[in-house]
Amino acid sequence: MFTRTLLSTAALLMFAGGVDMQTVPASFVARKVALGSYQFKLEEREGKCDLVYEGHHHNGTITLDIAPPCEFLREPKGKVQHHRYWNRKHSNGGFYLVMIVIGGPSDKQKSHPLMKDGCATQFQTVSLSSRGVVTGSVDTGMVVCPLDGLDEVSFSLNAKPT
Asked: Which of 40, 68, 92, 149 could lock onto 44 through a cystine, CB 3.0 to 4.6 A?
């Protein structure tokens, strides 16, 4: 009975947030996303969030500057939310993509099925291109859940061109 109530509550919260149960399952729970030519996965190890990435030419792990629990900022259908920027002045031009990972101490006043103990109080940008993956600085001062979405300014302020 408790499991059914919990599942119903999670379904209601996800539906209220613009996500129905059919769009969430495996990729959300697995904490994996694909963006550009990369596959990304979040892991928590020794009180830190690690971003593991695999691409055609670059593979590695970056320890983020935000505390667990960590999640990708996503669009309502589950894809990672991102913005595309032109890199005209550095690295021979081209473009790079920027996504956001949320985490940090949880704010228990606002929760989401993917962050049941409370939503994130920190977020960090991750920039990627065919030249590699780099992280930007950490931003604080707002509570963000995985499906809240942020405006383009939030992506561009802390992003580093690659």
From this structure: 68
